[in-house]
Automatic annotation (TrEMBL):
Record-given protein name: Prolyl oligopeptidase family serine peptidase
Basic and acidic residues composition bias: residue spans: 75-86
Domain Peptidase S9 prolyl oligopeptidase catalytic: 489-685
A Pfam family reported for this protein in Swiss-Prot or TrEMBL: Peptidase_S9
Annotated region (Disordered), positions in chain: 67-87
SUPFAM superfamilies to which the protein is assigned, alphabetical: alpha/beta-Hydrolases (SSF53474), DPP6 N-terminal domain-like (SSF82171)
Every Dipeptidylpeptidase IV N-terminal domain range: 107-373
Organism: Streptosporangium amethystogenes subsp. fukuiense
Length: 686
C-alpha cells in the first residue's frame, strides 16, 4: 500500500528535504558549494561541492560522521531556525572565505571549519555553544557568538578572543534581534570588513522590551519560557553598532532611526540602512569605519511605507550604487542615480552582484517570478522562458538557476558557465505523486490571480462540489504561483472531494505598490472583499463545478486570521472555517509588521481589523488550531478569541497543540492536522 500524501508531506517536511540550496560559487566560477540532505526523507543536511567543468558532485561533510547530536541546540539557534522557517537539521547554514577555500559551520553548538579542497574538518574549542559562525574574507579567522558575546578565533593557532561581552543578561553582541529576523529578513548581526581586520557588530539590548511567558500547560512541572516580545505600540530592542578591530579597538557607529534594516561592507566601503519607526523613511548611510561618522547617501520616503528589499545595498565594480525602490508606480532596480528596469517589471529581490552584473528576481506576470541580469545598461532574462518561479546565483561566469513550473514535479537546478549549460545539480526530493489539476485564472472585478483545483478524477460539469477557499491573503506571501509545489496541499484537499479556490488579493506582492498598499490602515476589509470577489469570479468560470451553498475556508497565520474573519463577518458566503495560528487582535502582534500597515495602536486603526468585536456574530462551524509553544503568533490570540466566543455563547472548536511552534514541524502533528481539517470540513459542509 502506497504511503498517504499527509504522511509523505510530513515526513519530507513539505517536500523540501533533498532539494539543493544555499549555493556559493567560487570566484573563478569552477566550483559550487551547496547544502542538501542525502534523501527526500533524510532530515540531516550535508555540505556538498559541484565541479562545474566535469559536472561531478562531491560530499564534503556529512554531520553523521562527526557524531554530533543535532538535537542539542542552544536556545538562540532554535530561535534562529524558527525565524528562518528552517525545516531540516544538520548543517543548515555555513559561510566561506572570499576564495571559497574554507567553510565554517555550527553543529549541535560546536564550531567546525572545513578545508573545501581536502575535506579535512576541524572541531574548534569554544567557551560555549556557537551561534552563526562566519569566516573572515581572508580565511584567517572565524567569528561567532556565544553567551551573547562576540568572539573571533584565529585559525592558525586556534586562539580565541572575545571582542565584545554583554554588560547585562538582556544584551547580545553579533545577533540580529527578533524584529530584524522575523520581519526584515536580516538574519545576521555582524559583518566582516573585506580585509578581515575589522567587524561591524550589532549590540542589541532587549531590556526595554516587555516580558511575555510561553507556558506548556500539558507539562505543568516545566517552567514557562520567558520571551521578550515587542507587541504593537510597545518598546523595541535598543540597537547600536560598533566597529571592532582585531586589536581590540571599539568605534561607535551612531544612527538616529528606530530600525537597522541592513549593513554591507564591500570594496567600496561600509554602508548601513536604517528606517524610522513609522516606516515611511529609509536612509542609506556611508560610514567611515575609523571614526564611525556617517554620510547620507540616499533617503527614500513613502506616505504609506517604504519597502525592505533583500540584497541591497551593493556596488558594481566601478562603485555605482545598486539599490531598489518604488518609482513611477513600480518596484524598480536602481543603479547609480536612476532606475534601470521598467515600472511594469516588479523587482522582488537582488540575488547577486558580480563585477558589472546585477542578478535579480522580478515579475511581469504576478504568478511568475523570473531571474534577470542587468549589465552595462541592459536587462536580460536569464531564467528559462517557460513561465515558473525561479531564483539564482552568479559569480565568475557561472550561473546557477533553480526553478519550478506547473508542468514539472519538484525543482530543477541548472548550471551554466559563460552561457554554456554545464549540467544539473541533483535533487533527491520525494515526488508527491499527485495528479495536479490546477487552472490559473484572473477572477473577479479586480482580475485577481486565482487558482482553481478540482479532484483528479472529476469530470468537468458532472457535479457541483463543495468549495474550499485556501488563502494566505496577506502581505509578503503569494499562494497563486506558476509552480507545482505551491499547490500540492490544495490538490490533496481537492482530491478529498472539494473544489479548491486560492486567491491572492490586495496586499499580496507581485502586482505593484498600489495593489500592496490598498491594505493601509485596514487589514480586514480589502482582503476579505477580494476573497469573495475571487470566489464568485471562479464560480462564473466553473459554474457547473462549484457549489456556492457549501463554502469552507482554511488558512494558517494571516490565512488563519482571514479564515476566522470570513465566517465572522460574511456567514452569507462562508459556511465553515479552519483557522490555524490566527492573529485575532493586532495589538498582540509585533511592532514592525503591525505598525507598517495599521500605524500605532493609538491612531485608531486596530479595532476594525481585529476579531473580538465580531465574536457574537458567529453562527458557522469554526475550528481554531494553535501551537502552545508558538512565539510568533502566541496562543493568546486563539485563547482570547475563544473566551470572547464563549462569553457571547457561540459554539466553536479549539485544538491546542502542546509543544508545537508556528511551523508545526513535528511529523505526526503535521500529518494529522491535514486529516483532522478534512474531517471537520466534510462534516461542516454536508
Amino acid at each position: 500500500m502506497s504511503e498517504s500524501f499527509p504522511r509523505l508531506h510530513a515526513r519530507t517536511r513539505r517536500f523540501t528535504l533533498g532539494v539543493p540550496r544555499g549555493f556559493t560559487i567560487a570566484p573563478s566560477g569552477d566550483r559550487i558549494v551547496f547544502l542538501r540532505t542525502r534523501g527526500g526523507s533524510d532530515p540531516v543536511t550535508c555540505l556538498w561541492e559541484y565541479d562545474v567543468l566535469s559536472g561531478a558532485e562531491r560530499l564534503v561533510v556529512d554531520p553523521r560522521a562527526l557524531a554530533a547530536d543535532d538535537e542539542n541546540l542552544p536556545p538562540e539557534e532554535r530561535a534562529r531556525r524558527e525565524r528562518s522557517r528552517e525545516q531540516a537539521g544538520g548543517i543548515v547554514g555555513y559561510s566561506t572565505d572570499a576564495a571559497v577555500a574554507t567553510a565554517a559551520f555550527a553543529l549541535s553548538g560546536g564550531l567546525y571549519v572545513v578545508d573545501l579542497k581536502t575535506g579535512y574538518v576541524r572541531n574548534l574549542q569554544t567557551p560555549g555553544p556557537v551561534i552563526d559562525p562566519r569566516m573572515s574574507p581572508t580565511g584567517e579567522h572565524v567569528g561567532y557568538v556565544t553567551g551573547g558575546a562576540f568572539h573571533i578565533q584565529d585559525l592558525a593557532d586556534e586562539v580565541d578572543h572575545a571582542l565584545a561581552r554583554p554588560e547585562a543578561p538582556e544584551v547580545t553582541y553579533g545577533l540580529a534581534e527578533f524584529i530584524a529576523s522575523e520581519e526584515m529578513d536580516r538574519m545576521r548581526g555582524y559583518w566582516w570588513s573585506p580585509s578581515g581586520d575589522a567587524i561591524l557588530v550589532e549590540r542589541a539590548d532587549e531590556s526595554p522590551v516587555q516580558r511575555w511567558h510561553i507556558a506548556d500547560p500539558a507539562n505543568p512541572a516545566r517552567p514557562a519560557a520567558e520571551q521578550r516580545y515587542p507587541s504593537a505600540g510597545t518598546a523595541n530592542a535598543g540597537v547600536e553598532l560598533f566597529v571592532l578591530t582585531l586589536t581590540g579597538a571599539r568605534v561607535p557607529v551612531p544612527f538616529d532611526d528606530e530600525y537597522l534594516v541592513n549593513a554591507a561592507w564591500d570594496a567600496h566601503g561600509l554602508s548601513i540602512v536604517t528606517m524610522t519607526r513609522d516606516q515611511r523613511t529609509m536612509r542609506l548611510l556611508a560610514v567611515d569605519p575609523a571614526t564611525g561618522a556617517s554620510t547620507l547617501v540616499r533617503e527614500d520616503t513613502d506616505p504609506a511605507w517604504v519597502d525592505v528589499v533583500t540584497g541591497v545595498p551593493g556596488h558594481l565594480a566601478d562603485g555605482s550604487l545598486v539599490w531598489a525602490a518604488v518609482s513611477e508606480g513600480g518596484h524598480r532596480l536602481i543603479v547609480g542615480d536612476g532606475p534601470v528596469t521598467p515600472p511594469t517589471l516588479q523587482v522582488r529581490e537582488i540575488l547577486d552582484i558580480d563585477g558589472e552584473t546585477v542578478l535579480f528576481r522580478a515579475s511581469g506576470e504576478p504568478t511568475e517570478i523570473a531571474v534577470w541580469a542587468y549589465r552595462r545598461g541592459q536587462i536580460t532574462l536569464v531564467s528559462p522562458t517557460e513561465g515558473g518561479v525561479y531564483s539564482g546565483h552568479t559569480a565568475g561566469g557561472t550561473l546557477v538557476i533553480t526553478g519550478q513550473t506547473l508542468e514539472s514535479e519538484g525543482s530543477v537546478t541548472r548550471v551554466l558557465h559563460n552561457g554554456t549549460p554545464r549540467g544539473h545539480i541533483t535533487s533527491h526530493a520525494e515526488r508527491p505523486g499527485l495528479d495536479l489539476r490546477v487552472s490559473l485564472i484572473r477572477a473577479g472585478e479586480r482580475d485577481l490571480a486565482t487558482a482553481v483545483l478540482l479532484p483528479s478524477g472529476h469530470v468537468p460539469g458532472s457535479a457541483r462540489l463543495p468549495v474550499l477557499m485556501d488563502p494566505y491573503g496577506g502581505p509578503h506571501a503569494q499562494r497563486v504561483l506558476a509552480a507545482a509545489g505551491a499547490h500540492l496541499t490544495s490538490q490533496w484537499f481537492a482530491d478529498q472531494g472539494f473544489a479548491v479556490v486560492v486567491a491572492d488579493g490586495r496586499g499580496t506582492p507581485g502586482r505593484g505598490p498600489e495593489f500592496e498598499r490598498a491594505v493601509l490602515h485596514d487589514l480586514a476589509g480589502p482582503v476579505l472583499d477580494d476573497q469573495i470577489d475571487a470566489l464568485h469570479g471562479a464560480a462564473a468560470r466553473f459554474p457547473d463545478d462549484l457549489d456556492l451553498t457549501r463554502v469552507g475556508i482554511r488558512g494558517w497565520s494571516f490565512g488563519g486570521y482571514l479564515a476566522a474573519l470570513a465566517v465572522l463577518r460574511r456567514p452569507d458566503t462562508f459556511h465553515a472555517a479552519v483557522a490555524g495560528a490566527p492573529v485575532t487582535d493586532w495589538r498582540l502582534y509585533d511592532t514592525c509588521y503591525t505598525e507598517r500597515y495599521l500605524g500605532r495602536p493609538d491612531e485608531g486603526h486596530y479595532d476594525s481589523s481585529s476579531l473580538f468585536a465580531d465574536a457574537e456574530k458567529l453562527d458557522r462551524p469554526l475550528l481554531l488550531i494553535h501551537g502552545l509553544a508558538d512565539d510568533n503568533v502566541v496562543a493568546a490570540h486563539t485563547l482570547r478569541l475563544s473566551s470572547a466566543l464563549l462569553a457571547a455563547g457561540r459554539p466553536h472548536n479549539v485544538l491546542p497543540l502542546s509543544g508545537v511552534t508556528h511551523m508545526t514541524p513535528q511529523e505526526v502533528v503535521a500529518e494529522n492536522l491535514l486529516l483532522l481539517q478534512v474531517d471537520f470540513l466534510k462534516k461542516a459542509l454536508t
